[in-house]
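Subject: two folds for Thursday's group meeting

Dear M.,

Sorry for the delay on this. The cluster queue was jammed most of the week, so I only got both jobs back this morning. I'm pasting them in the order they finished. Each block is the input sequence followed by the predicted C-alpha coordinates. Could you check whether the formatting survives your parser before we put anything on slides? The first protein is the one we discussed after the seminar.
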Amino acid sequence: MTLDAATYHILWPALIAGLLVTATHVPLGMQVLERGIVFIDLAIAQIAALGVIVADYLGWNPTGLAVQLAALSAALAGAALLTWTDRHWPEVQEAVIGVVFVLASSAAILILAKDPHGGESLKDLLSGQILWVHPSRLPIDALVYGAILAVWFGARERIGRIGFYGLFACAVTVSVQLVGLYLVFSTLVIPALATYYSRRLRYLKAYSIGAAGYVVGLVASVLIDLPSGPAIVCAMAIVAVAYFAFASLKRQPASPS
Protein backbone atom coordinates (compact mmCIF):
# COMPACT_ATOMS: atom_id res chain seq x y z
CA MET A 1 0.00 0.00 0.00
CA THR A 2 1.23 3.52 -0.77
CA LEU A 3 0.70 6.72 1.17
CA ASP A 4 -1.93 8.28 -1.07
CA ALA A 5 -4.43 10.99 -0.14
CA ALA A 6 -6.93 8.49 1.29
CA THR A 7 -4.21 6.97 3.46
CA TYR A 8 -3.19 10.37 4.81
CA HIS A 9 -6.85 11.00 5.64
CA ILE A 10 -6.75 7.89 7.86
CA LEU A 11 -3.30 8.53 9.31
CA TRP A 12 -3.57 12.10 10.53
CA PRO A 13 -6.33 11.56 13.15
CA ALA A 14 -4.49 8.45 14.37
CA LEU A 15 -1.21 10.36 14.64
CA ILE A 16 -2.85 13.24 16.52
CA ALA A 17 -4.43 10.73 18.90
CA GLY A 18 -1.03 9.15 19.47
CA LEU A 19 0.63 12.49 20.12
CA LEU A 20 -2.11 13.47 22.59
CA VAL A 21 -1.63 10.21 24.48
CA THR A 22 2.14 10.70 24.44
CA ALA A 23 1.88 14.27 25.75
CA THR A 24 -0.04 13.12 28.81
CA HIS A 25 1.43 9.70 29.49
CA VAL A 26 5.14 10.55 29.37
CA PRO A 27 5.15 12.63 32.60
CA LEU A 28 2.76 10.22 34.31
CA GLY A 29 4.95 7.30 33.24
CA MET A 30 8.01 8.94 34.79
CA GLN A 31 6.11 9.24 38.06
CA VAL A 32 5.01 5.60 37.84
CA LEU A 33 8.65 4.51 37.51
CA GLU A 34 9.69 6.76 40.37
CA ARG A 35 7.00 5.28 42.63
CA GLY A 36 7.88 1.71 41.59
CA ILE A 37 4.31 0.84 40.58
CA VAL A 38 4.86 0.04 36.92
CA PHE A 39 1.79 -2.13 36.46
CA ILE A 40 -0.69 0.33 37.92
CA ASP A 41 -1.53 1.54 34.41
CA LEU A 42 -2.42 -1.97 33.29
CA ALA A 43 -4.63 -2.46 36.33
CA ILE A 44 -6.49 0.85 36.08
CA ALA A 45 -6.75 0.61 32.29
CA GLN A 46 -8.22 -2.88 32.62
CA ILE A 47 -10.70 -1.63 35.23
CA ALA A 48 -11.73 1.21 32.89
CA ALA A 49 -12.13 -1.34 30.10
CA LEU A 50 -14.27 -3.44 32.41
CA GLY A 51 -16.50 -0.41 32.93
CA VAL A 52 -16.91 -0.11 29.16
CA ILE A 53 -17.72 -3.82 28.86
CA VAL A 54 -20.32 -3.66 31.64
CA ALA A 55 -21.94 -0.61 30.01
CA ASP A 56 -22.04 -2.43 26.67
CA TYR A 57 -23.51 -5.51 28.37
CA LEU A 58 -26.27 -3.30 29.77
CA GLY A 59 -27.04 -2.09 26.25
CA TRP A 60 -25.85 1.49 26.61
CA ASN A 61 -24.85 3.50 23.57
CA PRO A 62 -21.11 2.75 23.06
CA THR A 63 -20.40 6.37 22.10
CA GLY A 64 -22.69 7.92 24.69
CA LEU A 65 -21.88 9.83 27.86
CA ALA A 66 -23.11 6.98 30.07
CA VAL A 67 -20.35 4.67 28.83
CA GLN A 68 -17.71 7.31 29.50
CA LEU A 69 -19.07 7.83 33.01
CA ALA A 70 -19.11 4.07 33.59
CA ALA A 71 -15.48 3.74 32.50
CA LEU A 72 -14.38 6.76 34.56
CA SER A 73 -16.32 5.62 37.63
CA ALA A 74 -14.75 2.17 37.43
CA ALA A 75 -11.26 3.65 36.99
CA LEU A 76 -11.71 6.09 39.88
CA ALA A 77 -13.00 3.28 42.10
CA GLY A 78 -9.92 1.26 41.20
CA ALA A 79 -7.70 4.26 41.85
CA ALA A 80 -9.33 4.79 45.25
CA LEU A 81 -8.77 1.14 46.13
CA LEU A 82 -5.11 1.28 45.10
CA THR A 83 -4.65 4.53 47.02
CA TRP A 84 -5.96 2.81 50.15
CA THR A 85 -3.76 -0.26 49.69
CA ASP A 86 -0.73 1.93 48.94
CA ARG A 87 -1.27 3.74 52.24
CA HIS A 88 -1.79 0.61 54.32
CA TRP A 89 0.34 -2.04 52.59
CA PRO A 90 2.98 -0.17 50.53
CA GLU A 91 5.44 -3.07 50.72
CA VAL A 92 3.09 -5.35 48.73
CA GLN A 93 1.48 -2.70 46.50
CA GLU A 94 2.87 -4.18 43.28
CA ALA A 95 1.40 -7.59 44.14
CA VAL A 96 -1.98 -5.98 44.95
CA ILE A 97 -1.90 -4.19 41.59
CA GLY A 98 -1.26 -7.52 39.86
CA VAL A 99 -4.19 -9.18 41.62
CA VAL A 100 -6.51 -6.27 40.73
CA PHE A 101 -5.46 -6.55 37.07
CA VAL A 102 -6.09 -10.30 36.95
CA LEU A 103 -9.50 -9.95 38.63
CA ALA A 104 -10.60 -7.17 36.26
CA SER A 105 -9.39 -9.16 33.25
CA SER A 106 -11.16 -12.31 34.40
CA ALA A 107 -14.40 -10.42 35.06
CA ALA A 108 -14.24 -8.92 31.57
CA ILE A 109 -13.78 -12.36 30.00
CA LEU A 110 -16.70 -13.79 31.99
CA ILE A 111 -19.02 -10.96 30.94
CA LEU A 112 -18.04 -11.35 27.29
CA ALA A 113 -18.24 -15.15 27.33
CA LYS A 114 -21.88 -15.19 26.11
CA ASP A 115 -21.38 -12.37 23.61
CA PRO A 116 -20.85 -13.65 20.01
CA HIS A 117 -18.73 -10.56 19.36
CA GLY A 118 -17.00 -10.71 22.72
CA GLY A 119 -13.64 -11.78 21.33
CA GLU A 120 -13.54 -8.86 18.91
CA SER A 121 -14.59 -6.41 21.63
CA LEU A 122 -11.84 -7.64 23.93
CA LYS A 123 -9.27 -7.43 21.12
CA ASP A 124 -10.29 -3.84 20.38
CA LEU A 125 -9.88 -2.83 24.02
CA LEU A 126 -6.46 -4.50 24.22
CA SER A 127 -4.78 -3.59 20.93
CA GLY A 128 -7.05 -0.66 20.06
CA GLN A 129 -8.35 0.70 16.77
CA ILE A 130 -6.21 3.80 16.49
CA LEU A 131 -6.47 3.91 12.68
CA TRP A 132 -10.23 4.38 13.01
CA VAL A 133 -10.18 7.25 15.47
CA HIS A 134 -12.89 9.71 14.45
CA PRO A 135 -11.57 13.29 14.11
CA SER A 136 -14.67 14.69 15.83
CA ARG A 137 -13.64 13.23 19.20
CA LEU A 138 -10.11 14.63 19.16
CA PRO A 139 -10.92 18.20 20.32
CA ILE A 140 -12.76 16.87 23.39
CA ASP A 141 -9.95 14.46 24.20
CA ALA A 142 -7.42 17.29 23.71
CA LEU A 143 -9.30 19.42 26.26
CA VAL A 144 -9.31 16.57 28.79
CA TYR A 145 -5.61 15.89 28.28
CA GLY A 146 -4.84 19.60 28.46
CA ALA A 147 -6.63 19.86 31.82
CA ILE A 148 -4.72 16.83 33.11
CA LEU A 149 -1.38 18.32 32.02
CA ALA A 150 -2.27 21.69 33.55
CA VAL A 151 -3.02 20.07 36.91
CA TRP A 152 0.07 17.87 36.75
CA PHE A 153 2.61 20.53 35.87
CA GLY A 154 0.90 23.23 37.90
CA ALA A 155 0.07 21.41 41.12
CA ARG A 156 1.75 18.00 41.19
CA GLU A 157 3.58 18.81 44.44
CA ARG A 158 0.26 19.52 46.16
CA ILE A 159 -2.12 16.88 44.83
CA GLY A 160 -0.61 14.04 46.86
CA ARG A 161 -1.13 10.32 46.46
CA ILE A 162 -4.92 10.54 46.05
CA GLY A 163 -4.62 13.29 43.45
CA PHE A 164 -2.06 11.32 41.47
CA TYR A 165 -4.17 8.18 41.36
CA GLY A 166 -7.27 10.17 40.42
CA LEU A 167 -5.47 12.08 37.68
CA PHE A 168 -3.97 8.84 36.43
CA ALA A 169 -7.41 7.20 36.32
CA CYS A 170 -8.83 10.07 34.25
CA ALA A 171 -5.98 9.91 31.73
CA VAL A 172 -6.09 6.15 31.35
CA THR A 173 -9.90 6.10 30.99
CA VAL A 174 -9.69 8.33 27.92
CA SER A 175 -6.62 6.65 26.47
CA VAL A 176 -7.71 3.03 26.72
CA GLN A 177 -10.76 3.80 24.57
CA LEU A 178 -8.69 5.88 22.18
CA VAL A 179 -5.67 3.63 21.52
CA GLY A 180 -6.15 0.41 23.52
CA LEU A 181 -4.56 -1.03 26.65
CA TYR A 182 -1.28 -2.15 25.04
CA LEU A 183 -0.48 1.32 23.74
CA VAL A 184 -1.49 2.91 27.04
CA PHE A 185 1.05 0.75 28.86
CA SER A 186 3.75 1.18 26.21
CA THR A 187 3.41 4.96 26.03
CA LEU A 188 3.59 5.25 29.80
CA VAL A 189 6.55 2.96 30.35
CA ILE A 190 8.79 2.75 27.26
CA PRO A 191 9.78 6.45 26.84
CA ALA A 192 10.18 6.89 30.61
CA LEU A 193 12.25 3.72 30.90
CA ALA A 194 14.51 4.57 27.94
CA THR A 195 15.32 7.98 29.43
CA TYR A 196 15.53 6.84 33.05
CA TYR A 197 19.25 7.69 33.34
CA SER A 198 19.04 10.95 31.40
CA ARG A 199 20.01 14.02 33.37
CA ARG A 200 19.40 16.67 30.72
CA LEU A 201 16.36 17.30 28.52
CA ARG A 202 14.66 14.14 29.71
CA TYR A 203 11.17 15.29 28.79
CA LEU A 204 12.25 16.24 25.27
CA LYS A 205 13.96 12.90 24.75
CA ALA A 206 11.02 10.89 26.12
CA TYR A 207 8.48 12.83 24.08
CA SER A 208 10.62 12.32 20.96
CA ILE A 209 10.78 8.55 21.54
CA GLY A 210 7.02 8.34 22.00
CA ALA A 211 6.23 10.48 18.97
CA ALA A 212 8.72 8.62 16.77
CA GLY A 213 7.19 5.30 17.83
CA TYR A 214 3.73 6.42 16.76
CA VAL A 215 4.93 7.86 13.43
CA VAL A 216 7.06 4.83 12.47
CA GLY A 217 4.50 2.31 13.72
CA LEU A 218 1.56 3.92 11.96
CA VAL A 219 3.38 4.26 8.65
CA ALA A 220 4.68 0.68 8.86
CA SER A 221 1.24 -0.69 9.71
CA VAL A 222 -0.23 0.99 6.61
CA LEU A 223 2.60 0.14 4.20
CA ILE A 224 2.98 -3.50 5.30
CA ASP A 225 -0.69 -4.00 6.24
CA LEU A 226 -0.06 -4.87 9.90
CA PRO A 227 -2.21 -4.33 13.00
CA SER A 228 -1.53 -0.74 13.99
CA GLY A 229 -1.44 -1.12 17.78
CA PRO A 230 1.18 -3.89 17.96
CA ALA A 231 3.18 -2.21 15.16
CA ILE A 232 3.39 1.00 17.19
CA VAL A 233 4.39 -0.88 20.34
CA CYS A 234 7.22 -2.64 18.49
CA ALA A 235 8.32 0.55 16.74
CA MET A 236 8.42 2.48 20.02
CA ALA A 237 10.46 -0.28 21.63
CA ILE A 238 12.95 -0.28 18.72
CA VAL A 239 13.32 3.50 18.88
CA ALA A 240 13.78 3.32 22.66
CA VAL A 241 16.45 0.60 22.43
CA ALA A 242 18.28 2.55 19.73
CA TYR A 243 18.25 5.71 21.85
CA PHE A 244 19.35 3.84 24.98
CA ALA A 245 22.22 2.16 23.14
CA PHE A 246 23.37 5.48 21.69
CA ALA A 247 23.08 7.23 25.07
CA SER A 248 25.00 4.42 26.77
CA LEU A 249 27.86 4.76 24.28
CA LYS A 250 28.02 8.50 24.95
CA ARG A 251 28.16 7.93 28.71
CA GLN A 252 31.10 5.53 28.49
CA PRO A 253 34.44 7.20 29.18
CA ALA A 254 36.92 7.20 26.33
CA SER A 255 39.48 4.40 26.65
CA PRO A 256 43.09 5.54 27.16
CA SER A 257 45.16 5.38 24.00
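Second protein, same layout:
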Amino acid sequence: MTLDKVFQQAPFEALFFLTVLVVLIAIEAGLRYGRASRKRNPCETDAPIGTLVGAMLGLLAFILAFTFGMAGSNFEARRMGVLKESNAIGTLYLRADFIPQPARSEIRDFLREYVRLRLTGTELGKTEASIRRSEEILDALWARAAVLADKNPPTVLTGLFVQALNEVIDVHSERVMLGQTKRIPGVIWLSLYFMTGLSMLAVGYQFGIDGTRSVLGAIILALTFSAVIVLIADLDSPRRGLIKNSQDTMLALQKQLEVKSSQTMMAEP
Protein backbone atom coordinates (compact mmCIF):
# COMPACT_ATOMS: atom_id res chain seq x y z
CA MET A 1 0.00 0.00 0.00
CA THR A 2 1.38 3.41 -0.97
CA LEU A 3 1.92 6.26 1.47
CA ASP A 4 -1.00 8.15 -0.08
CA LYS A 5 -3.37 5.21 0.46
CA VAL A 6 -2.24 4.78 4.07
CA PHE A 7 -3.38 8.27 5.04
CA GLN A 8 -6.40 8.35 2.73
CA GLN A 9 -7.83 5.09 4.08
CA ALA A 10 -6.77 5.41 7.72
CA PRO A 11 -9.75 5.61 10.12
CA PHE A 12 -10.26 9.03 11.67
CA GLU A 13 -10.04 7.47 15.14
CA ALA A 14 -6.59 6.10 14.27
CA LEU A 15 -5.41 9.52 13.08
CA PHE A 16 -6.76 11.12 16.26
CA PHE A 17 -4.99 8.71 18.64
CA LEU A 18 -1.83 8.72 16.52
CA THR A 19 -1.65 12.50 16.80
CA VAL A 20 -2.28 12.36 20.55
CA LEU A 21 0.55 9.84 20.95
CA VAL A 22 2.94 11.83 18.75
CA VAL A 23 2.33 15.03 20.72
CA LEU A 24 2.49 13.47 24.20
CA ILE A 25 5.52 11.27 23.47
CA ALA A 26 7.40 14.17 21.85
CA ILE A 27 6.68 16.50 24.78
CA GLU A 28 7.73 13.85 27.31
CA ALA A 29 10.92 13.07 25.40
CA GLY A 30 11.76 16.76 25.12
CA LEU A 31 11.01 17.28 28.81
CA ARG A 32 13.38 14.53 29.90
CA TYR A 33 16.13 15.68 27.58
CA GLY A 34 15.67 19.26 28.83
CA ARG A 35 15.98 18.16 32.45
CA ALA A 36 19.12 16.18 31.67
CA SER A 37 20.59 19.17 29.83
CA ARG A 38 19.76 21.46 32.76
CA LYS A 39 21.61 19.15 35.15
CA ARG A 40 24.67 19.23 32.92
CA ASN A 41 24.51 23.00 32.55
CA PRO A 42 22.60 24.64 35.45
CA CYS A 43 23.23 28.10 34.02
CA GLU A 44 21.27 27.37 30.84
CA THR A 45 18.11 29.46 30.48
CA ASP A 46 15.00 28.97 28.41
CA ALA A 47 15.18 32.39 26.71
CA PRO A 48 16.85 31.24 23.46
CA ILE A 49 14.80 28.03 23.56
CA GLY A 50 11.62 30.11 23.75
CA THR A 51 12.59 31.89 20.52
CA LEU A 52 13.22 28.55 18.82
CA VAL A 53 9.92 27.11 20.06
CA GLY A 54 8.02 30.17 18.82
CA ALA A 55 9.60 29.87 15.37
CA MET A 56 8.85 26.16 15.13
CA LEU A 57 5.25 26.58 16.27
CA GLY A 58 4.82 29.36 13.73
CA LEU A 59 6.13 27.09 10.97
CA LEU A 60 3.84 24.28 12.16
CA ALA A 61 0.86 26.67 12.08
CA PHE A 62 1.78 27.61 8.51
CA ILE A 63 1.89 23.95 7.42
CA LEU A 64 -1.43 23.28 9.16
CA ALA A 65 -3.00 26.27 7.42
CA PHE A 66 -1.57 25.15 4.07
CA THR A 67 -2.89 21.62 4.50
CA PHE A 68 -6.26 22.86 5.71
CA GLY A 69 -6.49 25.17 2.69
CA MET A 70 -5.70 22.27 0.34
CA ALA A 71 -8.41 20.11 1.95
CA GLY A 72 -10.90 22.98 1.82
CA SER A 73 -10.11 23.60 -1.85
CA ASN A 74 -10.72 19.93 -2.66
CA PHE A 75 -14.01 20.01 -0.74
CA GLU A 76 -15.19 23.10 -2.61
CA ALA A 77 -14.21 21.58 -5.96
CA ARG A 78 -16.29 18.49 -5.19
CA ARG A 79 -19.23 20.67 -4.15
CA MET A 80 -19.07 22.61 -7.40
CA GLY A 81 -18.76 19.33 -9.29
CA VAL A 82 -22.18 18.25 -8.01
CA LEU A 83 -23.71 21.53 -9.18
CA LYS A 84 -22.04 21.35 -12.62
CA GLU A 85 -23.15 17.77 -13.14
CA SER A 86 -26.73 18.54 -12.12
CA ASN A 87 -26.89 21.43 -14.58
CA ALA A 88 -25.32 19.37 -17.36
CA ILE A 89 -27.78 16.49 -16.87
CA GLY A 90 -30.73 18.88 -16.78
CA THR A 91 -29.60 20.48 -20.03
CA LEU A 92 -29.13 17.10 -21.71
CA TYR A 93 -32.58 15.98 -20.58
CA LEU A 94 -34.17 19.07 -22.13
CA ARG A 95 -32.21 18.73 -25.37
CA ALA A 96 -33.48 15.17 -25.73
CA ASP A 97 -36.54 16.92 -27.22
CA PHE A 98 -34.44 17.27 -30.37
CA ILE A 99 -34.22 13.48 -30.69
CA PRO A 100 -37.06 11.58 -32.39
CA GLN A 101 -39.01 8.84 -30.69
CA PRO A 102 -38.50 6.12 -29.54
CA ALA A 103 -34.87 7.09 -28.85
CA ARG A 104 -36.00 10.18 -26.90
CA SER A 105 -37.83 8.17 -24.25
CA GLU A 106 -34.98 5.67 -23.99
CA ILE A 107 -32.43 8.45 -23.50
CA ARG A 108 -34.52 10.07 -20.77
CA ASP A 109 -34.95 6.72 -19.00
CA PHE A 110 -31.17 6.37 -19.02
CA LEU A 111 -30.75 9.86 -17.57
CA ARG A 112 -33.22 9.23 -14.73
CA GLU A 113 -31.34 6.03 -13.88
CA TYR A 114 -28.06 7.93 -14.07
CA VAL A 115 -29.27 10.48 -11.51
CA ARG A 116 -30.50 7.71 -9.19
CA LEU A 117 -27.12 6.02 -9.43
CA ARG A 118 -25.23 9.19 -8.56
CA LEU A 119 -27.38 9.69 -5.47
CA THR A 120 -27.33 6.04 -4.43
CA GLY A 121 -23.58 5.77 -4.80
CA THR A 122 -23.05 8.85 -2.63
CA GLU A 123 -25.60 8.11 0.07
CA LEU A 124 -25.02 4.36 0.47
CA GLY A 125 -21.30 4.29 -0.19
CA LYS A 126 -21.66 2.12 -3.33
CA THR A 127 -19.31 4.38 -5.21
CA GLU A 128 -17.41 1.88 -7.36
CA ALA A 129 -20.55 0.10 -8.57
CA SER A 130 -22.23 3.45 -9.21
CA ILE A 131 -19.31 4.69 -11.29
CA ARG A 132 -19.21 1.51 -13.39
CA ARG A 133 -22.92 1.61 -14.15
CA SER A 134 -22.80 5.38 -14.80
CA GLU A 135 -20.08 4.87 -17.38
CA GLU A 136 -22.10 2.10 -19.00
CA ILE A 137 -25.06 4.48 -19.29
CA LEU A 138 -22.88 7.20 -20.81
CA ASP A 139 -21.50 4.71 -23.32
CA ALA A 140 -25.06 3.65 -24.18
CA LEU A 141 -26.11 7.27 -24.65
CA TRP A 142 -23.16 7.92 -26.93
CA ALA A 143 -24.00 4.80 -28.93
CA ARG A 144 -27.58 6.04 -29.37
CA ALA A 145 -26.27 9.42 -30.56
CA ALA A 146 -23.94 7.70 -33.05
CA VAL A 147 -26.78 5.58 -34.45
CA LEU A 148 -28.96 8.67 -34.86
CA ALA A 149 -26.13 10.46 -36.65
CA ASP A 150 -25.78 7.56 -39.07
CA LYS A 151 -29.49 7.37 -39.83
CA ASN A 152 -30.22 11.09 -40.07
CA PRO A 153 -28.35 14.03 -41.59
CA PRO A 154 -26.62 16.18 -38.95
CA THR A 155 -28.52 19.26 -37.85
CA VAL A 156 -27.95 22.11 -35.43
CA LEU A 157 -30.42 20.59 -32.99
CA THR A 158 -28.76 17.19 -32.87
CA GLY A 159 -25.45 18.99 -32.58
CA LEU A 160 -26.72 20.75 -29.46
CA PHE A 161 -27.73 17.39 -28.01
CA VAL A 162 -24.29 15.90 -28.66
CA GLN A 163 -22.67 18.97 -27.14
CA ALA A 164 -24.74 18.54 -23.95
CA LEU A 165 -23.87 14.83 -23.85
CA ASN A 166 -20.18 15.69 -24.14
CA GLU A 167 -20.56 18.06 -21.21
CA VAL A 168 -22.12 15.33 -19.04
CA ILE A 169 -19.30 12.92 -19.93
CA ASP A 170 -16.65 15.54 -19.14
CA VAL A 171 -18.20 16.47 -15.80
CA HIS A 172 -18.55 12.80 -14.89
CA SER A 173 -14.82 12.28 -15.49
CA GLU A 174 -14.05 15.41 -13.48
CA ARG A 175 -16.11 14.24 -10.50
CA VAL A 176 -14.47 10.81 -10.55
CA MET A 177 -11.06 12.48 -10.58
CA LEU A 178 -12.01 14.80 -7.72
CA GLY A 179 -13.26 11.91 -5.62
CA GLN A 180 -10.46 9.44 -6.27
CA THR A 181 -7.21 11.25 -7.04
CA LYS A 182 -7.50 14.87 -5.89
CA ARG A 183 -6.47 14.29 -2.29
CA ILE A 184 -3.77 15.56 0.06
CA PRO A 185 -0.55 13.69 -0.86
CA GLY A 186 0.86 11.30 1.71
CA VAL A 187 4.20 13.15 1.79
CA ILE A 188 2.41 16.27 3.06
CA TRP A 189 0.74 14.24 5.82
CA LEU A 190 4.13 12.77 6.72
CA SER A 191 5.74 16.23 6.77
CA LEU A 192 2.92 17.51 8.96
CA TYR A 193 3.45 14.77 11.54
CA PHE A 194 7.22 15.25 11.36
CA MET A 195 6.90 18.97 12.06
CA THR A 196 4.36 18.32 14.81
CA GLY A 197 6.75 15.88 16.51
CA LEU A 198 9.71 18.27 16.28
CA SER A 199 7.68 21.24 17.53
CA MET A 200 6.30 19.31 20.50
CA LEU A 201 9.81 18.02 21.25
CA ALA A 202 11.00 21.63 21.43
CA VAL A 203 8.05 22.53 23.70
CA GLY A 204 8.92 19.66 26.03
CA TYR A 205 12.58 20.67 26.02
CA GLN A 206 11.60 24.19 27.08
CA PHE A 207 9.54 22.71 29.93
CA GLY A 208 12.59 20.70 31.02
CA ILE A 209 14.97 23.66 30.91
CA ASP A 210 12.46 25.81 32.79
CA GLY A 211 11.98 23.12 35.40
CA THR A 212 8.20 23.02 35.04
CA ARG A 213 5.83 20.28 33.97
CA SER A 214 2.35 21.12 32.66
CA VAL A 215 0.36 17.91 32.27
CA LEU A 216 -2.82 19.83 31.49
CA GLY A 217 -1.03 21.94 28.90
CA ALA A 218 0.37 18.85 27.18
CA ILE A 219 -3.06 17.22 27.09
CA ILE A 220 -4.67 20.36 25.68
CA LEU A 221 -2.01 20.60 22.96
CA ALA A 222 -2.47 16.93 22.07
CA LEU A 223 -6.25 17.17 21.84
CA THR A 224 -6.15 20.43 19.90
CA PHE A 225 -3.72 19.22 17.27
CA SER A 226 -5.57 15.89 17.01
CA ALA A 227 -8.88 17.66 16.42
CA VAL A 228 -7.36 19.83 13.69
CA ILE A 229 -5.76 16.82 11.98
CA VAL A 230 -9.05 14.89 11.98
CA LEU A 231 -10.90 17.96 10.65
CA ILE A 232 -8.43 18.23 7.76
CA ALA A 233 -8.76 14.50 7.02
CA ASP A 234 -12.57 14.78 7.11
CA LEU A 235 -12.57 17.69 4.66
CA ASP A 236 -10.21 15.79 2.36
CA SER A 237 -12.30 12.60 2.37
CA PRO A 238 -15.21 12.60 -0.14
CA ARG A 239 -16.84 9.39 1.13
CA ARG A 240 -16.31 9.27 4.90
CA GLY A 241 -16.74 11.45 7.93
CA LEU A 242 -19.24 14.02 9.11
CA ILE A 243 -18.47 16.74 6.55
CA LYS A 244 -20.13 15.69 3.29
CA ASN A 245 -20.94 17.48 0.09
CA SER A 246 -24.56 18.48 -0.21
CA GLN A 247 -26.53 16.58 -2.84
CA ASP A 248 -29.44 19.03 -2.75
CA THR A 249 -29.02 20.09 -6.39
CA MET A 250 -28.99 16.48 -7.55
CA LEU A 251 -32.05 15.68 -5.41
CA ALA A 252 -33.87 18.69 -6.85
CA LEU A 253 -32.95 17.54 -10.36
CA GLN A 254 -34.29 14.05 -9.62
CA LYS A 255 -37.63 15.50 -8.54
CA GLN A 256 -37.78 17.70 -11.64
CA LEU A 257 -37.10 14.75 -13.94
CA GLU A 258 -39.79 12.68 -12.22
CA VAL A 259 -42.33 15.51 -12.60
CA LYS A 260 -41.44 15.98 -16.27
CA SER A 261 -41.71 12.24 -16.87
CA SER A 262 -45.17 12.18 -15.29
CA GLN A 263 -46.28 15.15 -17.35
CA THR A 264 -45.02 13.52 -20.55
CA MET A 265 -46.86 10.29 -19.80
CA MET A 266 -50.10 12.20 -19.11
CA ALA A 267 -49.74 14.19 -22.33
CA GLU A 268 -49.31 11.07 -24.46
CA PRO A 269 -52.54 9.74 -26.00
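Two things I noticed about the second structure. The radius of gyration is 28 Å. The chain has one domain: 12-261.

Cheers,
T.
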